[in-house]
Structure of Peptidoglycan-binding protein:
Amino acid sequence: MAGISTGLKKKLKISPCTVDDSGNVNVDDGTAFEVMLNPASYSHAYSIGYNKKEALGQLGSDAKFSGIKPEKVNFDIVIDGTGVVQLVGAKDVKTQVQELTDIVYKYDGDNHEPNHVRLLWGSLIFFGRLESMSVEYTLFKPSGEPLRAKIKLAFSGFMSKEEEALRAKRSSPDLSHVIEVKAGDTLPLLCYRVYKDSSYYLEVARVNDITNFRALTPGSKLHFPPLR
């Protein structure tokens, strides 16, 4: 990701989330699924809803804004068990597919719905829920055990109540402003103060060309952009 360099190649991580009654999102990175191979590409779609009511005999219609529709993110990943990709402690293909399924698809009996998830990869920070998932097994052992799986994933965006309020209140100074760093400040902490969600620190680091977000300089000024 531009702006952050750790010397390691980051992999797409899919983490389960819980949303409390106030709309606050809590990410469980301890049970996250990290892909074996990063996607070759992904699509991030945005759309706006309009009401189009036409009167009888009317030649044209005036589209009235009705709301912002959930964002969509789609990508494909590959899980390989042939040994071509050497990973320490790598699990077999079926086990990895099941672990991914448990996070994105499994029904949560307590909340009566599938998990919310966070997608984190470079500058991509996306909160949503699974819309569709298909698994294609393409290579097998003589026993029939799969050695490779191609998985298509589609997610529909989720917006917390705090983020929804910020987006609706376009004139709010909390949407876009500059903060002077003080001793003891960290980027995740500042992001929590501004957005009520510390996970935006990667995006803020990218915007401010920060190469080491763990070592902020007191007195420096950081720009916190509008949530998009």
About this structure: Confidence is low (pLDDT under 50) at residues 1-8.
